[in-house]
Specification:
This protein has about 450 residues and is of the alpha+beta class. It has 10 helices and 18 strands.
Length: about 450
């Protein structure tokens, strides 16, 4: 009997939640085959089996968070007897508090009234996992006959009604649909045989969402949205940062005329304005190592490398992949790195090493028409740069009135690490690099 362990996903990941088992007990599994997915502190990651055979026992069910290197499953031969499960805890590796809840739920008798009964239209209870599986397959979960208590539609009901093999959709497109929480039924497939591809999902996500139906006069429409693991982690991290780090903010206006002309001249490769800001930020941080720093409690650690965190918005929340050693990259190299990370984030292919080790973070809401905002520090960083949109404004230069493309940059700093004068000097240098187009 071989043990499947919760893998160690980087030095900073100490525990993770089992999101989904791709195999059920009794099913064959091969080494290297996707066996389960986990939710780390920032992303959902698919994990491969480290053994071949039959999945004999799942010790940690979906939705349970356990430390890394915990034994979560057993793989053996079909007729091999199971070992004493007490060595993994009371029947498995699940923490005792969680086991008690699971045990109570499993032995509680189901009353006769809870058998599957017809339910009024629009009121069919659907489990979150069933809703997600139905969306990926383009079917209406509420139209299915539920086998759960009170007619609740379970994931198994959805899988029975529409097996995964019947869904004409590529694996990448399927992951994008699940992350976005949309229905595949509304997406026209352009692949072979009408298969939905990554490009089809991207095009669907780019379309404006249809307005929600208006509620009846005098009736308020309320909806309870369960927290996803990513949303819960974002809430915990941002609250901890705001409460523990004394934030203050410094804003400058940058004339992007030189940067705009640089982009027009540069034909070798396509650099976005965000790439130019990232490059200029890495350059300025090399001159201000006291901004590229972190608070340790009894000391301040100044980063040697500039590892730029690049905030990327996903339908399920915010993730920050890291451009490592950004100060050593040419502008072309930085453009390629940022594009690759953004694509991996959008398709759910980021690994834990892709979003760890940041020393400074940049967040850009300019594409959403935002002029100016203040961002919460992405700890363990001590500062984060917020980028607004480039907008033509009337400015006075040498006594004359001109129209220039102006962009507002705001630095949020941890006052325990970065003094106000230092932040002002850093922002002045960043402004100079961008205005001089010193790329």
């Amino acid at each position: 009997m071989q043990e499947i362990l919760l893998p160690k996903m980087g030095n900073s990941v100490e525990e993770a939640e089992i999101v989904k088992w791709f195999k059920q007990e009794g099913e064959p599994v091969e080494t290297g085959e996707a066996l389960f997915s986990i939710q780390t502190d920032k992303a959902e990651v698919e994990c491969e089996s480290t053994a071949s055979g039959v999945l004999r026992k799942i010790l940690v069910p979906e939705g349970v968070e356990v430390p890394v290197l915990t034994v979560i499953a057993l793989v053996g031969t079909a007729d091999e007897p199971l070992p004493d499960l007490s060595q993994y805890g009371a029947g498995g590796s699940v923490p005792m508090a969680v086991q008690s809840e699971i045990t109570v739920a499993s032995v509680t008798p189901t009353p006769q009234s809870a058998s599957v009964q017809p339910v009024p239209a629009g009121k069919v209870p659907v489990s979150p996992r069933a809703r997600k599986a139905a969306a990926a397959r383009g079917i209406d979960a509420a139209a299915l006959a539920g086998s759960g208590v009170g007619g609740r539609v379970l994931e198994a009901d959805v899988l029975a009604a529409a097996p995964e093999s019947a869904a004409k959709i590529t694996p990448t497109a399927k992951r994008m649909i699940e992350n976005a929480g949309i229905a595949a039924a509304g997406i026209a497939g352009t692949g072979i045989g009408g298969k939905i591809t990554k490009a089809d999902v991207s095009q669907a996500l780019a379309k404006p969402a249809a307005p929600a139906p208006a509620a009846a006069p005098g009736v308020a429409s309320l909806q309870r949205v369960p927290l996803t693991p990513m949303r819960r982690i974002i809430a915990e991290r941002m609250s901890a940062s705001k409460y523990s780090a004394p934030h203050y903010y410094v804003t400058v206006e940058v004339d992007m005329k030189g940067a705009r002309e640089f982009r027009a001249r540069n034909k070798a490769f396509k650099a976005s304005f965000n790439d130019l800001v990232l490059f200029a930020t890495a350059k300025a941080l090399r001159e201000f190592p006291n901004v590229n720093a972190r608070w340790l409690g009894d000391a301040i650690e100044q980063g040697g490398d500039v590892n730029l965190g690049m905030a990327v918005a996903l339908p399920t929340g915010l993730i920050v992949p890291v451009i490592r050693q950004a100060h050593l990259l040419s502008l072309e190299g930085l453009c390629a790195a940022s594009k690759a990370l953004a694509e991996k984030a959008q398709t759910g292919k980021l690994l834990p090493d892709d979003y760890q080790g940041n020393t400074f973070t940049v967040s850009n809401l300019g594409a959403y028409g935002v002029d100016h905002f203040t961002a919460i520090i992405n700890q363990p960083d001590s500062a984060i740069l917020a980028i607004g949109q480039i907008k033509d404004r009337v400015v006075v230069i040498d006594g004359g009135i001109h129209i220039r493309p102006i962009m507002k940059l705001t630095l949020s700093s941890d006052h325990r690490v970065v003094d106000g004068a230092v932040a002002a000097q850093f922002m002045g240098r960043l402004k100079a690099i961008l205005e001089e187009a010193a790329f």
